[in-house]
């Protein structure tokens, strides 16, 4: 039985005069009735408050909620705040608690209607400090589901994550091979593992969880009676010495004649949530019904701090679609807080006249403006952030070790892993993601599949060398005003996982400046906010003017989907699972491409089948940093792309003697040739494409090019010469399509350089700007392997 309390207080005396003396407007209940269950450090649990309006009350009641939090991490999904609840109606507030340590924490909820404020009892947490390596969590468990009319059989997931520094071997369930999942009492509902849904092993087939890695098991609930239900999972590891047992609460209720779509928040606000940060939220809608349902358009509402809310239309799998039985869909929305304080954002959709809604809530705080860089991981796999150390630049990571750089994988419904560093002096280097990292022992070198930097046992990069391909994130810091330079994301020498870099400042109010959209915006962002009105006033030529009719959203969104020229496998960067002489022997899920023969530092590459880790570029493949040692010479990228061939083989224009195809591919200046086409009108300049005049429109530019080199566009000139394939333009176009706001070649400055120096829109108050770097923003990984 839930504890139910009714409130009389002042409102009762008011209704005595109006003839409603027997009506108590609002009642509350709590599940579990004793509050938060005891949990181990690192685990997550939740409680559910239900507020119900008396069916005898004469009209709807508008509810308002508030929370007083002390101590550890709470995440609140509030479906009651500022909601008008009809007589007989209900709303729910879900409070999730993640135990990061054993320090006592508590939360007190208050709700208000009319002039009455009801403070509920404070809920205290109880945490057992343990040193287990594996933590568990339950996601997509609805707060309630129906017994009949119609019967619902919801599917949920249990995820186990290795938070330790060493691999563990384990399996779902106990040593007898049972209790993979549990539901108690079984008289209310039973649980079964979804066919093919166990990714966590069994007693007879255990799995190995590397540090930072996760596994999941999916279960389906079948209801039998109305009542409260506790759902749990079990993971056993270290030869049975350790177990982890996450639990969650739900209810079985009688139906109302229609199947109810369920909704959940998969990606939450960043923790902490800073003003002007780009929070890409993901909401998930699930059809637990026996038949398909038709969805309307997903809409968004917000309360609290003012925010720029931009739905990601290209990531909307739900609006106006038909959702099959037991199927799910997701949507992404960018939320950039402009104000401070409490903020909640909800996504809702109507399915067969019933509305399902999910909410993400946070408290927005002001940036500290201390040159702090925060790394956030929204990838489904572990990422180690990297900081290069060229001469004069120092990595400020405290007590460097593999675990110090580790960002745990994103788990649905949980806060994203985040770590921060503060630059106290000058820094002129780069930040980058590292994936697939390991070391043989605590004293051996820390080696990574992508972003390897030749680090020793402590995982710190010893210098400025990082071995491409990887996604490069660049920023400089200084002690003189402005105390930071331009920032960018670069794909010139290749790509690994997606990344977004954003300064925590406001958009510029100087809307007539062609550079205004690049002020404090997200380089690499999957969803760019609108910038309006934008009326750019170009200076008189030179330089060349640009178009005066930009779209409402001038910067292009980054889908992080790559389509290589001619679909050549040489652009695929893969792990060396199996060395091959041609691609015919590769079968899914493996991908054919170029892999490092041994370690990235050696620079030797071979044709191989393996996991897709990222992408090579001609700029990198033709460089002296790559040596092809494969058995099949026909797959040598230097030969395929004619890297060392004289440019005279392809052009009738005059270039300095010794100019090669690689020079025009890489825009390496040769005398007065192959300089930027944005700086001169020499017909042998390098580039250019005006990305804001392409069809379709790609992204804004701060300046147009003086001219374009026909050799760069067409791969050559003259009727009797050969053509480079792909053409130099084609060799970078696919990179720009994958991320319009990232550098695709060295002279891509006017569409890819951002700046953020002030804390005010008028750009007067210079500060030591803070930045956020999000890996796999919105959980987007493109076509990369699930665990590169």
Automatic annotation (TrEMBL):
Residues 531-554 are annotated as: Disordered. Residues 531-553 have a biased composition (Pro residues). InterPro entries: Ig-like_fold, Osmotin/thaumatin-like_sf, Thaumatin. Transmembrane segments: none annotated. Signal peptide: none annotated. Pfam families: Thaumatin. This is Thaumatin domain-containing protein.
């Amino acid at each position: 039985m839930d504890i139910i309390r009714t409130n009389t207080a002042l409102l009762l005396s008011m209704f005595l005069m109006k003839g409603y003396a027997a009506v108590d407007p609002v009642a509350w209940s709590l599940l579990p009735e004793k509050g938060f269950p005891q949990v181990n450090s690192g685990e997550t649990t939740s409680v559910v408050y239900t507020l119900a309006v008396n069916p005898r009350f004469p009209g709807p009641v508008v509810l308002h909620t508030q929370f007083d939090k002390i101590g550890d991490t709470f995440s609140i999904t509030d479906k009651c705040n500022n909601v008008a609840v009809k007589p007989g109606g209900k709303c729910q507030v879900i409070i999730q608690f993640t135990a990061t340590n054993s320090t006592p924490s508590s939360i007190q909820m208050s709700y208000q209607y009319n002039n009455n404020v009801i403070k509920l009892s404070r809920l205290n947490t109880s945490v057992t400090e343990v040193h287990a390596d594996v933590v568990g969590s339950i996601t997509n468990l609805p707060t309630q589901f129906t017994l009949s009319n119609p019967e619902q059989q919801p599917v949920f997931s249990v995820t186990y994550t290795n938070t330790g520094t060493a691999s563990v071997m384990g399996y779902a369930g106990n040593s007898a091979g049972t209790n993979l999942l549990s539901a108690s009492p079984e008289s209310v509902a039973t649980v079964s593992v979804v066919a093919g849904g166990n990714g966590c092993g069994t007693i007879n087939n255990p799995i190995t969880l590397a540090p930072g890695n996760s596994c999941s098991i999916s279960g389906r609930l079948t209801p039998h009676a109305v009542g409260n239900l506790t759902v749990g999972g079990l993971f056993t590891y270290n030869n049975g010495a350790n177990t982890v047992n996450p639990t969650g609460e739900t209810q079985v209720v009688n139906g109302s004649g229609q199947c109810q779509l369920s909704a959940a928040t998969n990606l939450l606000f960043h923790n902490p949530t800073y003003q002007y940060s780009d929070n890409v939220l993901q909401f998930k809608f699930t059809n637990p019904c026996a038949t398909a349902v038709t969805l309307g358009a997903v809409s968004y509402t917000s309360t609290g701090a003012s925010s720029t809310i931009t739905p990601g239309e290209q990531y909307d799998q739900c609006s106006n679609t038909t959702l099959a039985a037991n199927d799910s869909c997701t949507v992404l929305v960018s939320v950039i807080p402009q104000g401070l304080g409490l903020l909640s954002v909800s996504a809702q959709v109507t399915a067969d006249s019933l509305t399902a809604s999910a909410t993400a809530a946070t408290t927005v705080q002001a940036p500290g403006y201390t040159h702090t860089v925060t790394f956030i991981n929204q990838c489904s796999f572990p990422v180690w952030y990297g900081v290069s150390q060229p001469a004069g630049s120092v990595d400020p990571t405290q007590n460097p070790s593999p675990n110090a750089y580790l960002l745990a994988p994103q788990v649905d419904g949980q806060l994203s892993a985040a770590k921060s560093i503060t630059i106290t002096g000058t820094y002129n280097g780069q930040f980058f993601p590292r994936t697939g990292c390991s070391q043989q022992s605590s004293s051996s070198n820390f080696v990574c599949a992508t972003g390897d930097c030749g680090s020793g046992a402590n995982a710190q990069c010893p210098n400025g060398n990082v071995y491409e391909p990887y996604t490069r994130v660049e920023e400089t810091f200084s002690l003189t005003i402005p105390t930071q330079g331009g920032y960018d994301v670069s794909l010139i020498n290749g790509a690994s996982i997606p990344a977004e870099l954003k300064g925590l400042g406001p958009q510029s109010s100087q809307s007539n400046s062609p550079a205004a959209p690049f002020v404090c915006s997200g380089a690499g962002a999957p969803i760019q906010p609108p910038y309006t009105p934008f009326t750019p006033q170009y200076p008189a030529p030179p330089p060349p003017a640009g178009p005066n009719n930009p779209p409402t959203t001038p910067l292009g969104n980054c889908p992080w989907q790559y389509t290589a020229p001619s679909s050549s496998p040489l652009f695929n960067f893969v792990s060396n699972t199996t060395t091959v002489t041609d691609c015919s022997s590769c079968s899914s899920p493996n991908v054919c491409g170029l892999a490092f023969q041994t370690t990235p530092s050696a620079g030797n590459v071979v044709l191989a089948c393996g996991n897709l880790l990222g992408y090579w570029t001609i700029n990198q493949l033709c460089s002296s940093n790559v040596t092809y040692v494969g058995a099949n010479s026909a797959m040598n990228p230097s030969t395929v792309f004619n890297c060392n061939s004289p440019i005279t083989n392809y052009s009738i224009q005059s270039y300095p003697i010794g100019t090669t195809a690689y020079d025009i591919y890489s825009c390496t200046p040769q005398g007065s040739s192959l300089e930027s086409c944005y700086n001169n009108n020499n017909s042998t300049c390098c580039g250019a494409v005006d990305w804001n005049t392409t069809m379709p429109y790609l992204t804004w530019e701060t300046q147009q090019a003086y001219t374009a080199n026909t050799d760069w566009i067409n791969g050559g000139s003259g009727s009797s010469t050969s053509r480079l394939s792909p053409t130099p333009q084609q060799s970078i176009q696919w990179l720009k399509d994958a991320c319009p706001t990232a550098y695709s070649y060295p002279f891509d400055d006017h569409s890819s350089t951002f700046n953020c120096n002030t804390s005010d829109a008028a750009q007067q108050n210079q500060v030591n700007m803070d930045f956020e770097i999000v890996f796999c923003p919105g959980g987007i990984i493109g076509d990369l392997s699930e665990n590169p």
